Structures are given as C-alpha cells and as structure tokens.
Amino acid sequence: xxxxxxxxxxxxxxxxxxxxxxxxxxxxxxxxxxxxxxxxxxxxxxxxxxxxxxxxxxxxxxxxxxxxxxxxxxxxxxxxxxxxxxxxxxxxxxxxxxxxxxxxxxxxxxxxxxxxxxxxxxxxxxxxxxxxxxxxxxxxxxxxxxxxxxxxxxxxxxxxxxxxxxxxxxxxxxxxxxxxxxxxxxxxxxxxxxxxxxxxxxxxxxxxxxxxxxxxxxxxxxxxxxxxxxxxxxxxxxxxxxxxxxxxxxxxxxxxxxxxxxxxxxxxxxxxxxxxxxxxxxxxxxxxxxxxxxxxxxxxxxxxxxxxxxxxxxxxxxxxxxxxxxxxxxxxxxxxxxxxxxxxxxxxxxxxxxxxxxxxxxxxxxxxxxxxxxxxxxxxxxxxxxxxxxxxxxxxxxxxxxxxxxxxxxxxxxxxxxxxxxxxxxxxxxxxxxxxxxxxxxxxxxxxxxxxxxxxxxxxxxxxxxxxxxxxxxxxxxxxxxxxxxxxxxxxxxxxxxxxxxxxxxxxxxxxxxxxxxxxxxxxxxxxxxxxxxxxxxxxxxxxxxxxxxxxxxxxxxxxxxxxxxxxxxxxxxxxxxxxxxxxxxxxxxxxxxxxxxxxxxxxxxxxxxxxxxxxxxxxxxxxxxxxxxxxxxxxxxxxxxxxxxxxxxxxxxxxxxxxxxxxxxxxxxxxxxxxxxxxxxxxxxxxxxxxxxxxxxxxxxxxxxxxxxxxxxxxxxxxxxxxxxxxxxxxxxxxxxxxxxxxxxxxxxxxxxxxxxxxxxxxxxxxxxxxxxxxxxxxxxxxxxxxxxxxxxxxxxxxxxxxxxxxxxxxxxxxxxxxxxxx
Length: 824
Ligand code: GAL
Prior knowledge:
The protein is an alpha+beta fold. Helices cover 14% and strands 35% of the residues.
C-alpha cells in the first residue's frame, strides 16, 4: 500500500514539474480593423464595433482598386541609368497601400507569467499599445520584433486590449510592400525565468561523416544569480535521442549557458537531403522546471575557397538560385504557408536550390519551409542604407535602427540550416560614397559578431565605384548585380578571387505572348505592354539567361547566381513603369503572377534539374493569319540534340553548341551564345497543324518526342488542382489551373474570355490571377479573364472537413468542375 502511494505521488510530481510552462498562441481571429487615423483608438474603452472584422495575417491594400494615381512617383531611377525624373506608374502595384490603418483585438494571458508579443512583421511604423499604453514601436515593416508587455497586463490577466497603429508613407517603396498586420502575431507566455525570444545560438563547429560537434548557447532572462540546470537532448531526424547533456551552473556575467554535444554519423543537411535535428532543452531553477525550449537545426558545413568557389559539406556547388519579393501575387503580402509551399514546390521542380529574400527580411514560415524542403537562403534586409532610393524609404531610420534591425534578423535566423549567407544590402547608393565602405563594414561586423559562421555579401551594381573605393574588397563575398561583362575584371582586381551573381538576368517576358521578328532586344516595348516569350528581351541594365549560364560553366571562381526573379511580383512593371498605365506587376518572373510557369522555366529546368528530362517547345502553334510567315521554334531541353518536324516535314536536326563552337560563331550570329543552351530553328514558315520534336541522346538515339497542335474552336474549361487533399485548418490552399481548350484538349492560346467561379462546401474562393500585368481585375472577386488561355483560381479550406466543389464557368464553353477533399 505504501509503495503504491509513493508511486502515485511520484506520478503527480512528475506531471506537475513537466507541465509546459511556455505557451505560444497565434493571435489570428477576431481582429477589428479600420483604415485611416482613428483618434484615441488605443484606449480600452474605444468603441470598435463598427470596424471590419478581419483575420490576421491581413493585407489591407490587396483588395484594391488598382489606380494609376495610387502612389505616383516622380523619380529618376539612377540604378537604371535614368538622368531625368519621370512619372512612374504602378511602381508599387497601383494598389492603395499608402495611409494609416488600425487593428484591435483582446487577449488573455496568465497574470503571474511573463508575456511577450512577437510580431513577425507589420507594415509599417508599428505602434503597439496594450491596455491603452504604448508597449513598443518598430518602424521597419519587414522585420520581426517583440515587446515585453508583462507590466501592462490587467491584474487578472483577462481581456487585455491590444491596439496597433500602422502607417505607410507615400513613395516609401520601389515595389508593392503590402499593408497592415500581414504576418503573424504571437503571444508567448513563460515563467519569469525563461529563455528570451530567439534566445539560443546553435552552431556545428565540426562536421564530418563520422561525427559532428554541436554547440548550444542558451540565454536566460531573470536568473537572479541562481544555479541553473539545463538538460538538453539532441533528437535525430527520425526522433531518436542521439546525445544528452545535463549541466548545472551559474549564468556567468550575462554570458549564455554553453553545452557541447557529439553526434555520431550525422545525417547532413543539404538541399537534396534536408535532414533536421532538434535540441530540446529543459531549464530548471531551484529544482523546478522553469522553461522548455526547442531549437531546430541542421548539421552542415559551408566554406568559400578562393579561386575554387562554394562548398556545402565539402562538396563543390554553384548556387542555382532565384530572388523573390515577399508578395504572393493575388494573395498580396498576407503570409500563407500553403502559398509559400506552392512556390517552393515549383522552384524545386525547376532545379532551383537557393532563394534570396530581396530586399527584405522574410517571413519565418518561408525560412522554416526552406529548412524542410531543402533550399539554401541568402537573407537580405535592406534596399537602402543612409542614402535614399525612395523619398520616404528606410534611410529615414537607418542611423537609429540599422543595428537593431540587423540584430533581430540575425538572432531570429542564425540557427536555420537553410540560411547560408547574409547580404547586407541591395544596390545601395552608399556604394559610391567615399566613406561607403565604412557603412558596409559596420553592417558586416554586426553579422560577424552575431553569427561568426556565415559569410556576408552585398548586391553591388556600381562596379566602377566599388572596385575603386574599397567597398567590394571588404565584403566577404563580392556579389554583383548584372554587369556580366565585368565579372572577370572584378575577379582579377579583388582580393577574394571569387564572384557571386547576387542578382542576375532580369529577362522580361509575358506568358504565352510571342513577338516577331524574333530578336535579342534591350528595352523592347510594345503597344500591348507585354514582352516576348522567346526569352530574348531584357532591360538596359540586364541580360538574358544564357550569359549567366556561360559564366557558371566557364569560370570556376563564379559561385553561382540568384535570378531576378523566380516569381513575378506586384509593382515594378519595367519596361512599362514610365507612365504606361495600366501595368501593375513585373515581367521579370520565371513564373508569372498566377504561379504559371513561363517558357523560361523550362530553360532553367533543362540545365538545373538533373534528375528529370525536360523537352519543352515554343511558341504555341495557333497563329491564324500568320500562314507562311516565319515563326521560329525554340526547344528547351537537357538532351543534346533534336529534330523538328512541321506536319511531317523535317526542318533538320539541331545540337547544342560547345563553348568553342559558340565562340567561333560570335560576330556572325547574334544568337551564338544562345545556341549553347537552346535548340533554335530560326526559319520555319507557319502552317497550321502539328509541330513534332524528336529528342536524341548523346549516342544519337531518339529518346523522347513532344507534339503540339494548332487548336480548334474553344470548347471547354479544363480545371486541374495542384492538390486534391487539403488540411481542414482554415488556411490550406489549392491552386487550380483553368485552361480554355478545344474539344481535344489543346490550349486555345489567345483566349481571354471572362471566367466565373463558384466554390461550395468545405472551403471558400480566395483569389484568382491570370498573370497579365495590364489586367485591373481584382483578385478577390470570383471572376477573372483568361490570359493566353489560362488562369489560376485559389481555393481555401475551411475548418470543417468535407468536400469542396469548385466550378469554373465561361460563356460559350462547357464548364469545368472538380471536387477536393479536406481532412483534419
Ligand atoms: C535591380 C534591383 C531589383 C530590381 C531589378 C529589376 O537592379 O536590385 O530590385 O529593381 O533591378 O531588374
């Protein structure tokens, strides 16, 4: 009997001491929102009943309407060689992001605990009030920040009123920044003694196939000189405890608590093997469990060797990266994990292995997904430092806030294995000021201080200045934006003896639009405000992809590239940014605003994704009125050669040229370089019917065929979802591609009729996009015209599991219908 009592007591004690002291909740539902200044809206007795009820993340500006007059900017973009100021339309998407917005909600927090609010990002100039009192201010809209609100809580911890005032100044951005509480807001409650926000630093000082050494530094707040005991378990990717340490010490003059571990036969993190470990730490004081903190990490090594390049886990590789802005096209800036995952899934299939978050701190969900799905990341906080690019840009805050902004970013992401490099800035005008290198050095030093394990770069575009004034020489990794013709010179002049393409290409194209004659052109403009899908058009400062491929192939000291951009984004509609309204989104993307790949996607895929075959033919073959006219055919493929047939007639075989063969053609053929990477038949008279491409392997054996046909009359809508099973969590998304096709399923590539959507059952219509930068149709309304015969509708699961019935209807066509399942 005594024995049983003892055991019972033991269980009770066990469950009490192991109770989770730390709680984190997302503040998502039941926010009230109003646009414009609201006097005294921080007060607890303020009446917000008339305000709109919204869910956070929320982007107030994505609902439009688009308007030429939204954030008109009269400016000379000196980065683009402009000397005279002109009116820029659509620079920030033509969306109403400027102005003030207020959010209010209420939350409960245990009164005897430590309470911290964490904002993953708030656009912008956030003033946070709790129970009528200002809790904190954070100006930079992209950064995560936190405020300790313990002392502001109501005595019983109940019904605390949280109010947030945000303000976006006009002319504060070069692209669409979004507006509002567009990222998550969390409430973290802990004991008084706790691990503060981003309070651990985990490094892997030794990495080999035999063993890894893991070093964990844990900061403790409010230790009050007591003995602290930390028990940490290292958990392997399959859930086994592979190392443990149990240490007791005093916190030494504010220094974090250090523990070191050996992990035998570690499973190394890489884009191809994104293995993740966890360090789970239990923190005790006075014999009681005070906090439990989990640090997720990966074991991997990074190294940059002069003249040799970049090494991950001792293996040489070049970045096959893309730059992305943060918006999610038709969803605006409001973060959504399913939307991010969709983007990364498309990029993975393209063979992309790296992402540059340009030119801002990312959402934490993106970094976590990159850890899990296997992407290397370059995180870049700033587009300007102390010298302005935008009248009301970050330069207003740089002096006072730069270090705090850097520190938050570095501490938040220094344990994420996906992050392999920091970039301290993008094309900052400070590059050319004589003392500019000092500012660069100030920022680089902060990186080294907070994270001695990663190299630092900076996207430089003023090559002449930075080679002369010491700026490029003092950055760990010199990163150049465009200016491919100056890489060799930079390599030879700079002490680092490596060059990163921190931003490359900026080729412009519109999905499914082809212009004739087919020529390589800079700054080509057309009346329809589109760019050609033959992937030969670029801006005055930029280039087409082949140049970047050649630099990677020909020079060991190039360490790879980040293409501008993976996805089209809202704003910056170059070359249609100078009073060429309507034009609200970029043409730079490899993938359009509707998440539909452009032809270029397959060009990158043919070189980057080594595990699949690519055989892609362009243009489409439905050209009524072009009969007999020259209509070149391009093939993007990993196969070395192919033969083209039109209606059975051969146009001969083409093979990819070697570097030498291509060089020999230079001066004679304007597309000599392209012939290394693309198969091109430049003289093909159009006749309706069938285009067939037969691909041959290196031994000359026919191995794959691709056929495209002239479409007949539009007949029905084909609807295909990226996923048929969704999570019933109120957030998960399906991306449904809607195509106008003839009776045999051939795409009708010129169709632009209006498509209407209905969504019934366990989900709702969320948004649609067609990738047409000139379209002013609002994303959130359940209708959208097709563009080049296609569009994307996005459907969101509700919290009730069940069936979602989606239907797309258009005049004169048979409707398309599909059913999705949602589950808990
Ligand atoms: C770069 C700049 C990017 C974007 C791009 C367009 O110079 O860094 O933010 O503007 O040009 O080509």
